[in-house]
Structures are given as structure tokens and as C-alpha cells.
Amino acid sequence: MKKIIFIATLFFSVTILAQTDELKTLDKTYDLSSAPSQKDLEKVNTALASLDGMVNSLSPEQKNKYNFYKGTQSLLDIVVVAMNNPSNKTAISNALNYSKLITAADYFDKVIDFEKELAKKEHSEGINKDIVPFLKPLITQKAFELNSSSNFKEASDFFYLAYRFDRKDGSNLENASILALQSQDYKKAEKLYEEYLNSEYLKNGVIYYATNKATDKEENFPTTKARINATTIGTHEKPRDEKVSLKKPNIYKIYANLVANSGDVEKAKKVYKEAKEFNPDDLELLTEEANLYYNSDDLTTYSKLVKELIEKDPTNATLQYKIGYLAIANDGKLVEEINNSLDNRAKYDALVAKRKESFTKALPYFEKAYALDQANADYKTTLKATYEVIGMKDKADKL
């Protein structure tokens, strides 16, 4: 296992007098070619516990150190197991506690954000060069294991963890999004797909492909360097690059449907509009958008969208039926009004005429739907009822 060194600068408060903190510094070097001892862990925990209640009193630089070592503290149990049991994959996998790992990621994000504009990267370099290369392979390995055992929800969590530790590798965010959807955790999937849509990876990422000579199957590589190594030693050939942004139409489509499913109608309308810019001819997307307006009782917009769909797909029986049904959508209420107007002949006649008019508007669409799909019993029943309402008994009898 690669030798990893954490230079741990641990603070602890001795006394607090007149709002002035006396901080003592304990320098400790962990040579992680061997595991930290229990005594070392106790020192770390004691030193940091003494600071937990006085974080707001620390200077920005001290708080940055505190955040780094709070993040490191969350990882020490994993480090101990990995160092003591380097070949025991089960023990290492069991030591990867999601709660502790996400805590570490949160603290490290604070450190990286604080140091991003500083010339001297006191701790973020250690995170990116030492800690992430140590942790990320362990986390992704567990994510793939969980996925292989069909534990999609937890697999999504661990792929997202891998992304949190290394945001340059957006493939893990993509995997987390897909698996959240597969686990039917739609709320989480919506959140992840939104993050994926706004990620630098989707905007500017590149997938590095090459064909495995032994299997004749195309495989992807995390970096160009990894692919160059494979083609140099001769295991792979035919390298090619693909922009991740090519996936944007499908990602927008999935995200739009997730937002609609969540019940946020106004947000869904906005997202569908954006999604259509990338998928102007995707009939499934356009149908889902139309359904959104129908379910929110905006029948005017629904009618407009369905007519646009018919123009794009004139031989679609379902679309023809839907646009016809719009004309008689309120037939139940109309029939109720007619039945309640039996003692008012003028009103009764007017309502019957209105009903006949609505079915007359629907007729050409129902005829087209049935002509396109005569095996559909619903289309046949509706068309027959339409003929009867508008007085075309001879055609009704032929069905």
C-alpha cells in the first residue's frame, strides 16, 4: 500500500480567560505505512473535542485547520482497518461508514473553499494528493459491489461520496443519479440529476474510449494517461474521445420528468421548456409535457401541444384519440346538467345541442384513431358512442 503521510496539527484549549483563547499546538506526524495506535486516536479525539465548543472563537486560519482535522478525524477508523488489514476487502468495506465519510467530505469542502484563493494550499494539497487517492478507490469499489448485489440505493450513496471527494470525476455523479432513479428514490434522483445538469462534467467533460483487443469491446478510461498506458502496452486500440455534453438531451428529459413527478408544476413547465431546446423532436418528452398541462387543468395549452405532436407524428392513434377526447372532456358535467334540466325545455335543448357540437368536434380524431388501430376496443366504443350522440345511427350500427 502506498505510503501516505498526514501532518496533523491538533489544537486544544487550555483555558479561556476574558474571551481570550490560549491555544496550545501539538504536532504529530502519522506515517500511514503503519496504522495509528489507539493512543494516537485518543489524543486526536481529545484535542479536537476540546475545540468543538469554541469554534466561533478561532481565527479563520485556525478554523481552517480545525476543519481539516475534523475531516481527518472522521477517517481514522477507516485508516486503521485499511492499514491493519490491507488484504481483507470485507473488513475495509465494512469500515467505510457513509455518515463518517460524508462528514469528512463536508469538512474538506470547507478547507478547499477557504484555500482556493490562497497561494499556499496548507491543507487542500494534502487532501487532493494524499487523502483522495487513498480513499476514492475504496469508496468506488464498495459502490460497484453494492450495485452488483442490486443494492442500488446505497450504491448511489457511495458513488456520490466518490464524487464529493473528487469532483473532477463526474462519472461517479452520473452513476449516483442513475442508481437513485433505479432505486425509485425519486426525490433524491431529482436532486442528483439537477446537480448533474449543472456540473462542470456535463458541460465540459470528456469520456476517453479505447477498444479492448481481447474482447473487441469498447471501454472507457478515467484519464487520457490511463488510456495511453493501455494502448502503449498493447491491450487496447482505436482510442476516441466523446464529449459528455452529448448526453445533455437525455439528462434534461429525465430531470424534467422527475420534476413533474414531484408535483412542482411551475418548475416542471420551465424545465420542460429547457429540455425541448435539446429534444425538439422527442415525442415521449413532448407527450409528458402535454400531460403535465392536462393534469394541471390547462386544457388550452394541452390542446396546442397535442396538435403539435400530431403534426410530428400523424399516424399515432393515441395522440389522435387524446385530442378528440379533449372536446368531450367535460361530458360528465354536461350530462348531469341535461338531466337536471328536464323541466326546462329550452335549456334542455340548448345543452343537448352543445353536447352534440362537442362530439362533432371530436369525431374526426376518433375516426382517425380507430382507423389507425382497429384492434383497440376503447377506440371502437368511443367512436360508436360519438356516432350515436350526433345522430349517425347507421354508422354506429356498422361498428
Structure characteristics:
11% strand; three-stranded antiparallel beta sheet; 5 strands; mainly alpha
Fold and architecture overview:
With 399 residues, the chain is mainly α. Helix content is 66%, strand content 11%. The chain contains 20 helices and five strands. The protein has helices at 38-52, 60-73, 76-84, 89-95, 98-115, 124-148, 152-165, 171-182, 186-197, 200-204, 224-233, 248-262, 265-278, 283-295, 299-312, 317-327, 331-339, 345-372, 377-389, 393-398, and strands at residues 5-17, 20-31, 206-212, 217-221, 236-243. The strands form two sheets. The chain has a three-stranded antiparallel beta sheet with strand order 4-3-5. A two-stranded antiparallel sheet has the order 1-2. A hairpin with a 4-residue loop joins strand 3 (206-212) and strand 4. Helix 5 (98-115) packs parallel to helix 7 (152-165), helix 12 (248-262) packs antiparallel against helix 13 (265-278) and helix 12 (248-262) packs parallel to helix 14 (283-295). The termini are far apart. Residues 1-32 have low confidence and may be disordered.
* Mean pLDDT, all residues: 86
Let me know the number of strands.
5
End-to-end distance: 78 Å
Q: Describe the sheet with the most strands.
A: 3 strands, antiparallel
Name the helix and strand elements from N-terminus to C-terminus, one letter apiece. Answer: EEHHHHHHHHHHEEHEHHHHHHHHH
Shape: elongated
Strand order in the largest sheet:
4-3-5
Enumerate the spans where pLDDT stays under 50 for 5 or more consecutive residues: 1-32
* Count of discrete alpha- or pi-helical segments spanning 4 or more residues: 20
- The radius of gyration is 32 Å
* Estimated share of beta-strand residues: 5-15%
Q: What helical percentage do the residues reach?
A: 55-70%
- Structure classification: mainly alpha
